[in-house]
Amino acid sequence: MSVVLQEPVALDDSVPVRSRRGIVWETVKRRPSAAVGAGVLLLVVLGAVLAPVLAPYDLHKQVGPVFGHPSWSHPLGLDDGGIDMVTLLMWGARISLVVGFAATFVSMVIGGTIGVAAGYFGGKVDTVLMRITDYFLVIPDVPLMIIVAAIWGPSLFHIVIVIGILLWTSTARVIRAQVKSVRERVYVKRARSLGASHTRVVFRHVLPQVAPLLIANTVLTIAVAIFDETALSFLGLGDPSRISLGKVIENAFQRAAISTGAWWAIVPPGALVAVIILGCSLLGGTIEDALNPRLRVAHLSARSFRLRPLVGRGPEAL
Amino acid sequence: MRGADYIVKRVVFALLTVFVAITINFALFRLAPGSAVTNLARVPHATPETRLAIKRQFGLDKSKFQQYWIYLGQLFRGNLGVSFANSQPVATNLRTALINTIPMVLIGTVFAILLGTLTGVIAAWRRGTKAEGASVTTALAFYSMPTHWLGLMLVILFAGVLPTGGMSNEFLLNPSFSTHVKDLAEHIALPSLTLGLVLYGEYTLIVRSAMLETLGEDYILTARAKGFRAGAILRRHALRNAMLPIATLVALSLGYIVAGAILVETVFSWPGLGRAVYDAVLQRDYPMLQGAFLLLTISVVFFNLVADLLYFKLDPRITT
Questions:
Q1: Given an 8 Å threshold on Cβ–Cβ distance, is A274 in contact with B255?
Q2: A33-57+74-296, what's its fold?
Q3: Nearest-CA distance from A77 to chain B in Å?
Q4: What pTM does this model have?
Q5: What number is the ipTM of this complex?
Q6: Count of domains observed in chain B
Q7: CB contact under 8 A, B152 and A278
Q8: For chain A, which residues make up each domain, given as ranges?
Q9: Which of A92, A241, B123, B304 is a plausible cystine mate for A245, CB 3.0–4.6 Å?
Q10: Hey, which residues does B162 pair with through a beta bridge?
């Protein structure tokens, strides 16, 4: 079989020009992993938001024996205080998601601003901002979080701020690279020369172009934030008055769920965290892949020794 | 010499980063809310005389700038202060902990790199097959698990088969050398495995995407056209070039290894640096916490520098 190379795409009007958003949407539709990720996330968010309505029992009421076995009325058993695990998971996911979203919002605002400023203005601004980013990138975030949480005291607000302040680096770098390339495009230069202000150019022309990448990054950051919150809680630095999924794991560990044999108190909360993070990774990763032009080229593989386009993408997408 | 200024630049940057970390370290603990005396000495109802004495003892009666200067001077001489918890010099505590941590982390990381590279290469080479799907899904699953939770799962699975806590069996009296080594190996297995499994997922994904990019290059097509065997192309042409991003990203994941070590050591009561951080948090042992943070930062900065230099060695095109 001969080597089949990509036909050069003719630049006539019959080939529809796709916007970046269009490419993302196409990819998400065609790749099941993204749909699975989005579906899982939607399910978890729904369960968490509707916890006050859907939760089968009271979060603060003992409804059975300590570490009660799973049964029909309590499908996941009871925890160390005799509280229904399903109820705990729903309320815990609520707090974990709040921390995840809030911390991500903080880091998006910081990272987005720094990335856009560095990429758009370039020159000295770029150098200074990227140096700062480099410093933050090297400092190990979890130990710093531990110290800050230990000194300022455990509270949900502190956790959000600390995670948010430390997670923005990758966003800033990714956004900066994108903005740099967008800035050089002809229409942006035209807009400038027509007298549009920097603010207008950034918000009207640059931001919409980087938006998909920003979203992908947001989704990935949510995963990291939830992971970090779980870790901080496990080390006893979580908010004592709020039950997050990390807190549920910590409680079970501290109250010897394992030596009691009460696996149902410790397996589900961690599995739920893993599912949330997996959902975020699948969704965010797919969007990022779709936007990475280097991954869009065909390549050789073991099965067929010819150039083959990536799964689900015809040559017209190139 | 080629790129001498590149090396100098990287080293200067690393030193500057350490300096910034030291300053953050100083500032963080001085910015703690509440009076520094109650924070540092933990005396709730002290008389003014005691307070003054404590202030003097810790040098808190001097100006912030003087304190900073003294702190730098002490650090330079390797004096990290005295632990609140056991009244030993922090440096001694840290050294003991570090010696325990290194083998555990090393075994876990090597395991992760080997397994991650293997599955990552397979995933890229067998793109679009079931092998890729299985490899990527497994990697993502392990990548998504909270480190400490995975450790606890292993505890549940291996309870009774392998020891799940500590570093050695304290009831072994005068063990022979081989018994002692076997005992240590049994104790190190689960913590290392936990760390290795969590890291491997990330490495698989990194290796896979680096390999995918390389396999799309023209020189791979050329090599194929020349009729080289698949294995040779994979090893000599693709993996060689994919090593560049892999080396950098593995180095960047070191901060993550540090975090992982804290969680793993807490689960398995491994008497290392991570456990020391956990204990220091519980006991509010600030000098110890400060020292541990400094040590962790320096090690991450150091390995980043190593990665930068390695990158330079691997890629002859880099000149600046």
A1: no
A2: MetI-like fold (1.10.3720)
A3: 17
A4: 0.82
A5: 0.80
A6: 1
A7: no
A8: 33-57+74-296
A9: A92
A10: B159
